[in-house]
Amino acid sequence: MASHLDLEEQEQLDAVKHFWKRYGNVIVSVLIAVLACFSAWNGWNWWQRDQAAKAGAMFDELERAAQANDAEKAGRIFGDLKDRYARTSFAQQGGLLNARVQAEAGQTDAAKAALTWVGANAPETEYQTIAKLRLAGMFLDAKQYDDALKQLDSATAEGFEALAEDRRGDVLLAQGKTDDAKAAYKKAWLAMNPKIEYRRLIEAKLTSMGSPPEAAASTEAANAASAGASK
């Protein structure tokens, strides 16, 4: 009985040895790859947290410079922030904040440069669109209408359609294209949530141009009803 068990155990051992000889290297390679991926994932998470913490500390410095209206210091900090931590949200926020500080200090070119950087480099389209809307406003103030419209054409983040069309209306109106401006304002009014107070400003623009949106909507509804009744 014992010899039978010994023989069976020996056969199992031989089978294990054969299996390991054939597949051992593959198994070890897979285990090494899995452990390496796990280690890399942990390392990547640590690196991201470390980058975010350092970028956050630098953004705090930028905020303090902004509160002190120190445009020179704000510009210097933002330069370091975008050079070292360009892919963090703090860099995008820093660009928008620095642009405001520079604009308030009369440093128009520096403000435009900061907004241009955010518009071109922000990972999130929302930050890109905010930067482009502000940049379009600066181009509008400088009467650089074509440049303003180019910014608006690429300001495409979801949820910003109304603001983009409203700004487009401002640019078109400044160009003397009244009908096109009305069309843009109407799009903005329709796209804007009725609960948002800013919608009333868009409505005021349309009303001042002799095209109150509520009246236009009522006329369109009446025309649609009349057309339906005549069929």
Q: Concise description?
A:
Among the domains are: 58-155, Serine Threonine Protein Phosphatase 5, Tetratricopeptide repeat (Alpha Horseshoe); 159-219.
Radius of gyration: 31 Å
Main β-sheet: number of strands, strand sense, barrel status? none
The beta-strand count equals: 0
Beta-strand content: under 5%
Mean pLDDT: 81
Which key phrases capture this entry?
231 residues; disordered C terminus; 0% strand; Serine Threonine Protein Phosphatase 5, Tetratricopeptide repeat; mainly alpha
List the helices and strands and how they pair.
Blueprint: H1 2-67, H2 71-84, H3 89-104, H4 108-121, H5 125-141, H6 145-153, H7 161-174, H8 178-191, H9 198-208, H10 213-230
Helix pairs in contact: 1-2, 1-3, 2-3, 3-4, 4-5, 5-6, 5-7, 6-7, 7-8, 8-9
Describe the structure.
- The protein has 231 residues and is mainly alpha-helical.
- Among the domains are: 58-155, Serine Threonine Protein Phosphatase 5, Tetratricopeptide repeat, CATH 1.25.40; 159-219.
- It is 84% helix and 0% strand.
- It has 10 helices and no strands.
- It has helices spanning 2-67, 71-84, 89-104, 108-121, 125-141, 145-153, 161-174, 178-191, 198-208, 213-230.
- The longest helix is centred in the first third of the chain and has 66 residues, at 2-67.
- It is elongated, with a radius of gyration of 31 Å.
- The termini are far apart.
